[in-house]
Amino acid sequence: MLANYAFIGIFFIAALIFPLIPLIAAWRLRPARPTATKLDTYECGLEVIGETRVQFRVQYYLYALAFVIFDVEMVFLYPWAVAYNQLGLYGLLAMTVFIVILVFGLAYEWKKGALEWV
Amino acid sequence: MIEIPPIDWSVVLQLCIIFGGATALLMADLFIPEVRRRVTGYLALAVLAAAAIAGVAPWGCRGHTFSGTIQIDSFSLVLNWIFMLGAAITIVLSFDYLPRHGINRGEYYVMILFAVGGMMLLAQGADLVVLFLGLELLSITLYALAGFAYPRTTSEEAAMKYLLIGAFATGFLVFGIALVYGATGATNLAQIGAVLAEGRIDGENRIYLMAGAAMTVIGLGYKISLVPFHMWTPDVYEGSPTPITAFMSVAGKAAAFAGMTRFLLTALETQREIWVPILAALAAITIVVGNLGALTQQNVKRMLAYSSIGQAGYILLGPLAASERGTEAMLYYLLAYTLTNLAAFGVLIALEARGEAAWNLSDLGGLWQRSPGLAIAMAIAMLSLAGVPPTAGFVAKFAVFTAAWQAGQAVLVFIGVIVSAIAAFYYLRVVAQIFMSEPTREVEISSDRVLAFGIGLSVIAIVLIGVLPARLLNLI
Amino acid sequence: MTWLDIVILIVKCIVLTLAATTMFAYFTLFERRLLARLQNRVGPNRAGAIPLPGGQRILGGWLQPAADAVKLFFKEDVVPVMADKWVYIMAPGFAVIPALIIWVAIPLGYWPDGAGGNLLQLAEIDVAILYLLAVTSVGVYGIAIAGWASNNKYSMLGGIRATAQVISYELALGLAVLGVVMQAQSFRTDTIVDAQTTLWYIVPQFLGFVIFLVASTAEVVRAPFDLVEAEQELVGGYNTEYGSMKFALFFMSEYIKLIAMNAIAVTLFLGGWKVPGLQTLADAVTASFGANIGNAVFGLTSLGAFLLKVTVLSFVSVWVRATLPRVRYDQLMDLGWKVLLPLALINVALTAIVNVILPDNIWISGIVLFVLGLATLIGATILSRPKYTSSQVTMVKNNARS
Question: Which residue in B63, B59, B64, B50 sits closest to B19, CA to CA?
């Protein structure tokens, strides 16, 4: 059984090598005549103004935070999902409480406006 | 079918009420408009009342559930009541404070409830993992509450300092738990105690156990601000919103003491000859440093912070006695201290009516002429902190000193008494300022009825349990 | 494990990689032709046409992918001076590797190797579902890294948008898959396929299937959720600064991921390689030609059925791209968080309740779930439609009259 995980590893190596072949081939084949204009950052032909790596809007972070919470909770649902039938009604109720808390969290964020893209 | 072990719901009833109520309140608050924010507070009070009443039925019972990780006994019930009392008075004191400072958000009350839940886990925990869970729940909510006065920079600073130091303390605690588990093979307090009683631990394991126990105590020591670990206390107490300072200084401290007492007296019972001298030394340093630090403060809030460090040293005398008597004394002290500190901070809240700090000693000058009620409340609180009869503070100090004396800690009691006498100086200086000085500047005083009710209730309780201590001591 | 086994394994790996690449190449042709048809154009129809006697030419365009590849090989490759050179070069690799290794855990068919194994599934692991979810979400690293390393504002925006989008839809995706896991009570893809012998999971998990299709389209940042590239505003987004073979690798990873997503959808909801009557056919062949031929027939037929189903879903993908305009970013986030996530939670709850309460008969519980899922979907559609007040409506009507 463990051998199957080794297959993933071997295939991973294959997948690692795979993009190298065309990259190296193209590197040998293609022409290279760089000019200052070619090497410049592309901004629709205008001069580059300002830094690229600036602060961007906080909304992205809010989504990322919400994601971390929900993703962890979702991961907790997985072990339950493969055994919920054996846990019977009690397991169902326990998980209902859990899902209700999850929904409360979502409702809270929704109502507080954390999910609004303003 | 997978068997699910039965759960004794009566053991966790109070916890269920608090956590369920807090979650429901979080939802309910979404639909309460800003101008009616007090409704959230009243609902939170209702939740606390329900949980407090739920604690009456199991009085005198002992039991545990969730595979022996959560237990209930008189000790935890009394502590739960102290936490709920502290939280309830804090909420009452906050009604007026929050809108005046522009931080009238419903999460405040919800987080106080969650913090109370964490404290109850600390009091009811019979397993190191549950203790850790409770402490984390308590700390994380308190970090957020300390920074609740955002965007006031002092509040943010307090939250940041508390978070960083708290994270450090958590690291100690978890590492300590891991080492204790490695040495004894158990996280359950009673099991650890049993393993140690058999005397099977020796050699390397003994070193691990001692290191682990020391780190666990250090982790909890940060929360109760024992002296080498107290550096954060003045800054955090000064920067946090005043009701939260009050809550932190009483309930948070009581919870950490609960956890520490459980750990020391259940798990490390047999190792008494090792930890008693160490903790006695710590208690002595704490009493001395805390009170001497308070001597030089001109800022009353900061003075109270140092005083709370000193008080922690006195409270520690209770568990140090390692007897029934000592634990009772500690509980009594915690109750008295809770009421006293809440009353003192309540007066400070009343002085912050305009939303700016009025914590200088001179701001208290002439309080007697301007507001006799507040003046008397502050005076009684100060006398109680100093340990002057007939207040609760006196009986509490008397109880811990007797317990420690009986346990053979004569030197410690001696130091305690001497320092109490010195400490009386700065407490009485406040009283003198109130009654004998003239006001230096105009400080607006809040005339909110609910706030007055909260302060009044605490003050009456201080006097009442000071005059009739026997009743309560018997009950405990 | 002998040397022979390892050689076979390596050959399998190479075959799978090449197969994925070929699928990508021909999917691009498929898409271009189909899009052209849907837009009343002709599409690429020259490369590789075979002249017939009488001036007729057939199979026009079948060499188009090869021609594209040759063109890309000979393009000049410019690394912008402002870029982080090595990160910039590595980014396409980060994008391609996850796209390829998804395929390891998908059963492409069933070809018994005589020892209880399956020749058409490279790794039969116990946590295949978790593996698939993990690898699909890792795919966004390539885009995020490319956006950052290019040091170009458009690329940066594309990369950030991609990250936010993928994590938002990952929740709905994961919860949709959870419904299937609950039905089959297993994380193994082969067990899930086996469990669909009686009834494909598209019936009991209809709601889950719809969520999965939408979320997977967003997860591989394809139209109408291709804000990451958005030619008109971001000039290609994260790949603005990429050219030549590096661009081709991004392009490839995107399409391989899309096909892989469709393959996962087929495995989870459309019965995988199952077709009715397959076992009877294989038994008949085994009876007359022996076990090896029987296995081969079984394997090839199941592979064919699988590819056919994937093609059907791929057709849907192209169709969607041709039909729907690109959404706005706030709409994208609203759809993910306020529509799909609650729906997916409802789906999980419905699945749990129905399967615990109703008896083990898959038909009854399946149809009940289907009806409930459909009702939820219709309800959600009604609830989330744009609402206008009556005054707005009269205003527009009056405008139209005057």
Answer: B50
Question: Is B30 close to A91, i.e. CB distance below 8 A?
Answer: no
> pLDDT class for B289, splitting at 50, 70, 90?
very high
Of chain A residues 51-110, which have a CB less than 8 A from chain B?
83, 86-88, 90-91, 101, 104, 107-108
Q: Say whether B4 and A111 touch across the interface (CB within 8 A).
A: no
Spatial contact of B81 and B107, defined as CB atoms under 8 Å apart: no
Q: How far apart are CA B82 and CA B89, in angstroms?
A: 11
User: B63 to chain A nearest CA, in Å?
Assistant: 23
Residue-wise pLDDT for B59-109, tens only, equals: 777 888 888 889 888 888 989 999 999 999 999 999 888 888 888 888 899
How far away is chain A from the Cα of C88, in angstroms, using its nearest Cα? 13
Cβ pair C49, C61 in contact under 8 A: yes
Q: What residues in A contact C130, CB-CB < 8 Å?
A: 78
Spatial contact of C97 and A23, defined as CB atoms under 8 Å apart: no
Q: Which H or E run includes C97? A: helix C85-101
| Residue C124 and residue C306 in contact, taking contact as beta carbons nearer than 8 Å | no
The pairing of strands B63-65 and C50-51 is: unpaired
Query: How far is Cα C282 from Cα C284, in angstroms, rounded to an integer?
Result: 5
Residue C244, both tokens: 């030549």
Nearest residue to C103 (alpha-carbon basis) of C61, C74, C131: C131
The answer to whether residues B401 and B417 touch, using CB atoms and an 8 Å cutoff, is yes
Angle B272-295/B300-321 helices, nearest 10 degrees? 160
Distances A24 to B4, C99, C248 between C-alpha atoms, Å: 59, 20, 13
In this complex, which of A90, A107, A111 lies closest to B4 when CB atoms are compared?
Answer: A90
Q: How far apart are CA B392 and CA B341, in angstroms?
A: 12
Q: State the count of interchain CB pairs (< 8 A) between A and C.
A: 203
Nearest to B460 by CA among B349, B396, B348, B377: B377
Residues B27, A107: C-beta atoms closer than 8 Å: yes
**What is the ipTM, given to two decimal places?**
0.86
Question: Which tokens hold the place of C325?
Answer: 């305009």
Nearest Cβ partner for A29 among C74, C89, C356: C74
Are B138 and B123 in contact by the 8 Å Cβ rule? The answer is no
Distances (CA, A) of B229 to B164, B250, C200, C232: 13, 17, 63, 59
Task: Compute the half-sphere exposure of residue C387: CA atoms within 13 Å on the CB side of its CA.
Answer: 5
Tokens linked to B373: 């009620």
In contact, C201 and C264? CB cutoff 8 Å:
no
**B240 vs B232: CA distance, rounded Å:** 12
Nearest Cα to A41, choosing from C240, C85, C91?
C240
Cα–Cα nearest to B347, from B338, B362, B358: B358
Residues forming a β-bridge with B72: B63
- Inter-chain CB proximity B2 and A104 less than 8 Å: no
Pick from C26, C386, C77, C105: nearest CA to C241: C77
Asked if B397 and B420 touch (Cβ cutoff 8 Å), the reply is yes
What pLDDT band is residue C399 in, cutting at 50, 70 and 90? confident
Neighbours of B158 (CB within 10 A): 28
Q: What is the 3-state secondary structure (H, E, C) of B307-345?
A: HHHHHHHHHHHHHHHCCHHHHHHHHHHHHHHHHHHHHHH
Which letter does DSSP use for residue C326 in this model?
P
CA dihedral (C306, C311, C312, C318) in degrees, to 10, reads: 150
Angle in degrees, CA B294, B288, B220, rounded to 5 = 90
Sign of the Cα pseudo-torsion (B217, B219, B223, B227, in order): positive
Q: pLDDT-derived band of residue B130, with 50, 70 and 90 as boundaries?
A: very high
